[in-house]
């Protein structure tokens, strides 16, 4: 493992190579959250607490990728504020199980957003990822999709999920992946396959904290 | 909350008994280390909303004026109605003391520097009527914020031998050696600097200081009274006005006899013995010569209306000379600054304006946004600004081991001593977000309201964690217009010995002028906000702004918004 600076620059290098990759602006506060989540001595309650905080930040940041239009409003003081308005017609899709950890974060930002689900399981023999279950809003093909999956180490699961979304008519450029930790290989796999989609993550690091789902849901 | 023009009704002010009961309940959980007992007893010295911070200590039979506080207050009630003018409706009287419910006006100028309070020293023999004179001055002054410090709080702790002597009525409490002048000088000095002080509570039964202390604050006027007020030259230097209350020795003895016998149940011989052997000689030897230091000698004590009116007029003139028009001055200072195109100070931390932030602003600034949406979106924005604030803290490196068995070079916040302080009411809306991101964080509160007549902010209520000086403080207010309320809150924190560099003022929206004023007055305070608007209107609202944030959030806006 290289030094921290090296790891960080890894992430930025990737940003340059892949236009679709967006890494949350790293500051020490986010680094602290990541440190706590990676620490094996973190208690479950702390883990969940800090995971939820990081999720909220990633979700808020991912929403920046969604389309908006300009919108002027009148303030109570009678002045005009030159604001903007998000376009309606977005939806969330979580990849079962760990992606569901991010649903609450999305709900906290968008109260009535529709959320679809995909269950991807790896075949025990072939280790090939297979979509077992998928349930989406009817008009998903017309929508922008915020795909939620916190840990991406190979990118296979996400690739399958994106594939399913495309099969349902979602345009590639309308898919934004919300992610906490991913590896460079995963970014490579996904963005090489689907160059027009976007990834919003908090860290690109050679080692992904694969214990996330287990610890978050307490099944370890 | 600089943008607020609401004012609380006097009956519901922070000083009413029921209110204190409630706040006690609220805070016993948050601040378990604050003596709850003290609050239940109905003492609110530590709340600055009670401007007369008189330590309530039972006096010994052997010292000065001994009227029970109760009878004294009742007497002033009747006098007050004749003498005072419009102040009366802002006074609440309880069993033990008078409470002025009006808030504390600014005690510092537009660059955040404190204006020296006017310190009045009152000296005089035992039972000469010092306290009566002090009270009459306070009432006639009509200054809402006065601190009354009594020399009785500074009696020395007695050892066992002295204690026995005192029990036999042979300890001389009227001698200068009976007082702890060092502590007295430090306390008075700090009060004069406007800082918080812990005044000892002297227990006259044990002749020791109680473990608890009374918290007092500096004020616009400080009155220091006692039998040997002018004895120490250092104390004399701190006094802006020295009053000697003179009363006929016969009158004083008569008062003392009546008090000690009828109210303290003591026998005539004992009282007379003490008087002739100690009180009277001490008076002649130590107290009477102090008259030469006095600026004014008031014969006949509290009955001397003419003398008191003269004193009051002088103090009022002095206060006017030092007086302030803070908000106006702030606004003017900005106009001057604007001409010179002041660069934005580097202590300002503006959240990066992402589409997300602008989108949220669009919702909360729109006058037609219904309240549930207003609350929802402002909460989201608050969460973001609080997360951003935390990222401004200092961090240290920390290497941990991951479950994968690898080392990870991470970070850890350098301090665990973090607390939130909200400026009521609008700042309160931000408390939840702070609690959501910091486990078990302590939250203090400061209530500042704008006086409708003067347009100035006034401090009404204050509860802070006890050891706040060791904390990094996240000071929260939803909007900052002129910065007057924020500056008052910062000043309060500084008076509690919080380091200036440990304060972060966090808000959703600030006006350029408020930012400039705060940054100029407190260059080390970090200013965190999500948007800075260019202007303030003549009602001190930010333009384009979000209107009255507190009213919109809590749903208390007046029926016609335009009347704001």
How would you sum up the major sheet of chain B?
Answer: 8 strands, mixed
Q: State the helicity of chain A in percent bands.
A: 25-40%
* Assigned CATH class of chain A: Alpha Beta
CATH superfamily of the largest domain in chain B: P-loop containing nucleotide triphosphate hydrolases
- SSE class of chain B: alpha/beta
Low-confidence segments of chain B, given as residue ranges, are 1-102
Poorly predicted segments of chain A? 1-9
Domain module count of chain A: 1
CATH class of the largest domain in chain B equals Alpha Beta
Radius of gyration of chain A over all CA atoms, rounded: 18 Å
Per the principal axes of the C-alpha atoms, what is the gross shape of chain A?
globular
Q: The CATH topology of chain A, please?
A: Rossmann fold
What is the CATH architecture assignment of the largest domain in chain B? 3-Layer(aba) Sandwich
Output the helix-strand order of chain A. HEHHEEEHEEEEHEEHEEH
Q: Which strand order does the major sheet of chain A show? A: 1-11-9-7-4-5-6
Strand content of chain B: 15-25%
Mean of all residue-level pLDDT scores of chain B: 74
SS content category of chain A = alpha/beta
Number of domains of chain B: 2
């Amino acid at each position: 493992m290289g030094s921290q600076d090296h790891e960080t620059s890894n992430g930025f290098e990737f940003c340059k190579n892949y236009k679709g990759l967006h890494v949350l602006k790293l500051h020490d506060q986010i680094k602290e959250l990541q440190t706590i989540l990676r620490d094996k001595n973190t208690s479950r309650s702390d883990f969940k607490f800090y995971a939820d905080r990081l999720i909220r930040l990633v979700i808020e940041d991912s929403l920046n990728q969604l389309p908006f239009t300009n919108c002027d409003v009148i303030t109570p003081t009678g002045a005009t504020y030159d604001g903007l308005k998000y376009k309606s017609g977005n939806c969330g899709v979580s990849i079962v199980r760990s992606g569901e950890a991010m649903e609450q974060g999305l709900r906290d930002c968008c109260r009535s957003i529709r959320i679809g689900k995909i269950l991807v399981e790896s075949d025990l023999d072939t280790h090939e990822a297979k979509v077992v279950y998928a349930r989406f809003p009817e008009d998903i093909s017309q929508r922008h999709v915020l795909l939620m999956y916190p840990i991406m180490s190979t990118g296979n699961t996400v690739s399958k999920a994106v594939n399913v979304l495309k099969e349902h008519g979602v345009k590639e450029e309308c898919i934004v992946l919300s992610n906490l930790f991913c590896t460079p290989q995963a970014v490579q796999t996904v963005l090489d396959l689907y160059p027009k989609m976007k990834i919003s993550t908090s860290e690109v690091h050679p080692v992904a904290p694969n214990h996330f789902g287990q610890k978050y849901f307490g099944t370890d | 909350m600089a943008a607020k023009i609401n004012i609380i009704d006097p009956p519901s002010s922070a000083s009413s008994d029921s209110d204190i009961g409630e706040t006690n309940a609220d805070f016993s959980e948050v601040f378990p280390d604050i003596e709850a007992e003290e609050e239940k007893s109905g003492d609110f010295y530590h709340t600055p909303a009670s401007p007369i911070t008189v330590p309530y200590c039972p006096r010994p039979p052997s010292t000065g004026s001994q009227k029970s506080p109760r009878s004294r207050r009742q007497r002033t009630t009747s006098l007050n109605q004749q003498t005072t003018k419009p102040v009366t409706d802002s006074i609440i009287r309880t069993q033990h003391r008078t409470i002025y419910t009006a808030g504390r006006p600014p005690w510092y100028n537009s660059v955040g520097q404190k204006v020296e309070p006017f310190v009045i020293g009152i000296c005089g023999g035992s039972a000469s009527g010092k306290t009566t004179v002090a009270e009459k001055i306070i009432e006639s002054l009509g200054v809402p914020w006065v601190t009354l410090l009594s020399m009785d709080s500074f009696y020395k702790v007695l050892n066992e031998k002295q204690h026995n002597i005192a029990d036999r009525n042979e300890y001389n409490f009227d001698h200068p050696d009976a007082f702890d002048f060092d502590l007295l000088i430090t306390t008075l000095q700090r009060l004069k600097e406007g800082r918080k002080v812990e005044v000892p509570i002297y227990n006259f039964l044990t002749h020791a200081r109680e473990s608890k202390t009374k918290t007092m604050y500096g004020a616009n006027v400080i009155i220091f009274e006692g039998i040997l007020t002018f004895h120490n030259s250092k104390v004399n230097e701190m006094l802006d006005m020295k009053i000697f209350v003179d009363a006929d020795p016969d009158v004083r003895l008569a008062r003392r006899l009546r008090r000690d016998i009828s109210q303290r149940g003591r026998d005539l011989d004992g009282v007379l013995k003490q008087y002739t052997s100690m009180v009277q000689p001490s008076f002649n030897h130590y107290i009477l010569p102090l008259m030469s230091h006095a600026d004014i000698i008031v014969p006949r004590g509290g009955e001397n209306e003419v003398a008191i009116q003269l004193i009051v007029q002088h103090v009022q003139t002095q206060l006017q000379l030092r007086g302030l028009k803070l908000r106006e001055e702030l606004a003017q200072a900005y106009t001057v600054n604007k001409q010179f195109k002041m660069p934005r100070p580097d202590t300002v931390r503006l959240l990066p304006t992402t589409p997300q932030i602008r989108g949220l602003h669009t919702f909360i600034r729109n006058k037609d946004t219904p309240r549930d949406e207003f609350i929802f979106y402002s909460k989201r924005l608050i969460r973001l600004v609080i997360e951003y604030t935390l990222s401004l803290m200092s961090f240290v490196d920390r290497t941990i081991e991951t479950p994968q068995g690898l080392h990870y070079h991470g970070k850890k916040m350098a301090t665990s001593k973090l607390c939130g302080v909200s400026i009521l009411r609008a700042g309160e809306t931000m408390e939840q977000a702070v609690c959501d991101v910091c486990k078990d964080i302590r939250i203090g509160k400061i209530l500042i309201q704008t006086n409708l007549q003067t347009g100035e902010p006034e401090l009404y209520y204050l509860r802070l964690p006890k050891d706040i000086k060791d904390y990094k403080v996240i000071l929260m207010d939803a909007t900052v217009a002129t910065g007057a309320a924020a500056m008052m809150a910062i000043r309060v924190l500084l008076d509690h010995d919080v380091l200036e560099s440990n304060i972060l003022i966090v808000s959703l929206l600030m006006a350029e002028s408020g930012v400039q004023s705060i940054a100029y007055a407190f260059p080390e305070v970090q200013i965190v906000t999500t948007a800075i608007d260019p202007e303030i209107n003549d009602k001190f609202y930010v333009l384009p702004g979000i209107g009255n944030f507190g009213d919109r959030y809590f749903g208390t806006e007046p029926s016609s918004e335009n009347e704001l």
